[in-house]
Amino acid sequence: MNIRRTTLALAGSTLAFAHAQIAFAQAASATPQAAEDAGTEIVVTGTRTVGRSRLDTAAPVDVLSGATLRQQGSTELGAALSAVAPSIDFPRASAVDGTDAIRPATLRGLSPDQTLVLINGVRGHTAALLNINGSVGRGAAAVDLNTIPTVALDTIEVLRDGASAQYGSDAIAGVINLRLREARSGGGASVTYGFYDTNIDTARGSRSSSGEHTINASAWQGIGFGNDGYLTLSGEYQRRLPTSRGDYDPRITPSVVDSRFGDPDVKQYSVWATAGTSITDNLKLYGWFGYQDRNSTSAAFPRIPSAAASVSGVYPNGFLPLINTKSRDINSAIGVKGDVAGWSVDANVSYGRNKIDFRTRNSANYTFGNSTQTNFYDGALIYDQLVGGIDVSRKFDVFQSLNVAFGVEGRREGFKITQGEPASYGYGTALPNQQPGAQGFGGFSPLNEISKHRENGSVYLDLEAQVTSKLLVGVAGRGEDYSDFGKTGNGKVSARYDFTPWFALRGSASTGFRAPSLQQQYFTSVASVIQNGSPILTGTYPSVSPVAQALGGKALEPEKSTNLSAGTVIRAGGFDLTIDAYRIHIRNQIGLSENIQGSFSPQVAALLAPYNVSAARFFINGLASTTKGIDAVAHYRLRSANAGTFDFTVAGNVNKIDVTRVPNSLAALNPVPTLFARSRILTLEDGTPGEKVTGTIDWSSRLFGATARVTYYGNVTQPGTTATVLVNGVAMSNDLQTGKKAIADLELRYQPKTTPLQLAIGASNLFDTYPKQSPTYLNTTGVTAYPFYSPFGFNGRYLYVRAGLNW
Known about the structure:
Layout: H1 3-7, H2 32-35, E1 61-65, H3 66-70, H4 77-84, E2 88-89, E3 106-107, E4 115-119, E5 122-123, E6 153-159, H5 164-167, E7 174-180, E8 187-202, E9 205-225, E10 229-240, E11 265-278, E12 283-299, E13 322-340, E14 343-361, E15 376-396, E16 401-419, H6 422-425, E17 450-466, E18 471-482, E19 486-500, E20 503-514, H7 518-522, E21 525-531, E22 534-540, H8 546-550, E23 559-572, E24 575-592, E25 596-597, H9 602-608, E26 613-617, E27 619-640, E28 644-661, H10 678-686, E29 691-700, E30 704-713, E31 717-718, E32 724-727, E33 730-733, E34 736-737, E35 741-750, E36 757-764, E37 798-806
Parallel strand pairs: 4-7, 22-26
Antiparallel strand pairs: 1-6, 2-3, 4-5, 6-7, 8-9, 8-37, 9-10, 10-11, 11-12, 12-13, 13-14, 14-15, 15-16, 16-17, 17-18, 18-19, 19-20, 20-23, 21-22, 23-24, 24-27, 25-26, 27-28, 28-29, 29-30, 30-35, 31-34, 32-33, 35-36, 36-37
């Protein structure tokens, strides 16, 4: 049977949902009501058995309440998750083009595209952006978590276990399931105002900043209709001014900060709606729709007057190119679920789309000289995804119980690149020997335009048996058929044994995979440059293009993984502790090669010459890595009649990644060019913290509440291409280190139970902690004053106030 062709005609979802209560896990819940039954929260991720709690699963699942995410300084979902979940990292990249605006998150230090993101159990779509610059997650096209505002969320479940056999591609590191609000009544609104109050100490000088504010306004409303119908509306508006954390530029006199190294300028609004109602006694219609418009502007490196001499009539003092991205994102789904002949059936269809338009502002095309325009439209990236499927499940009285679940899913994906205006990439006649295109971010040319699609279908079977009162066993298998690379199959076995009501052991073994994304397969960014008076092509090519094939490029294949985990669950009264060890081996991993220059050897030059190409890079399979680590989460609740309720949480992750195989050749080349530089390998191994520990105290009483959190980050390395560099004849380290740092956050709340008013005041990074400075010999332009791999950013202390009403 052709799985893909069969299932593309079917509609459905990846999961059948059980309605669950607001819960607490890695971080303490923000209110006593949300925290009341911590440890007994019902989960739907990682298990298809209805009614299983967080502490009763065979794999580790964290449950984070929406209140926990909203009651902190960050207004970004990715940053809020990173603050409370030690296994999640969200570096704030800067000076890396589109990745400044659309930042990827990582789970257990793995690539951002090796974590599957679900929305209400349905596969979310990735961003159109492909991260091709020198950031954590280079080469990945990942889901943009920040397209979903926290005001629209009820809870988030984080499955820290391989789950490709259950959910399909991408679930190598685990699964993040975003569960939307579903309310028939009630509502709320809040406004948060915050600003930075920080001392910026760089290698060349110090200064202070008080400002760079952010305004965030959000509201939600539940509307009931009929017997059980609901419509929940949520909206958010955000205005964030850019931050500037660059060093003084030594190339100009007097030396000033002429860069804008930091967070981008953002204007953003999001609207979401979820709805559901019974259509018969046994069937329920449900769905959701979300839209976000994000206008973000970041800065490229400054062009000083000597470099901008060809446009001195326009920019006599040089200029700072600005990269503007306008991202418009859609998430939608409609489905039916209920009981059919004793089986629980869930069928739905979802559609998601992301379009990113690029513009370069305050820039120039040097080839036009002083007649250059200064603002350019650079073209667009577009990705869309249509998913449909059916999930069926039923519990049988076999053993103590046997839950049988099976289903089918079909998916169609599309990826497009559209060209920019000619001046954004082309040549003028005034100075044709200059570098063409807009400075800072050159536009997509007709050579880069593509439109590609693919389809896949899958079937799965998931069995979970409570064999005895103490023994739980699960078995899952999944087969997938892709139109581009063919078929793949994966399986998973899990077990849990409860020795006593307070002590259990659990573990799993599984295989996983990640299909190469359309962006990795077909992204093209080819520019024409003048060399010896003639135009020559250089850039990023698809691996199946004639240029890449001449150098040994091949059609990409899926990444494969083997996941092993073992852990324990301990609980007694208000205390619970989970410890889980894991090993993830990934083979045939995909990476973006270095630029292979025609000047490297006569043989390479001869291979590229027929295509008039001077240099090319492309994606290839062949990397292998092994990740080992331990997650631990300890929680204790203390109730006091007079002092209120205290929740204590300590959660930590220790993670070690080793790259065990690096491809060193594609074609029969001698000598062999470097395919993956030292910096690429060390980014995979040391680009995220090896240790991260979060300690949280959450207190709530009749009138007041408070949250205090300290997060410890292990050292992160932002590597150079070589280990050392000569400085005045002395070998110096070519790597940047963030250092081991602890970040303290504090929020105080006035939240009387008798009135709808809520007030809060808080500080993120209370003690104004920065990563280590970039030394002057590695920061010769003064732009990158701190490592942008820093897992907590490099913006300093942030102060905020929040006022809200609930009704």
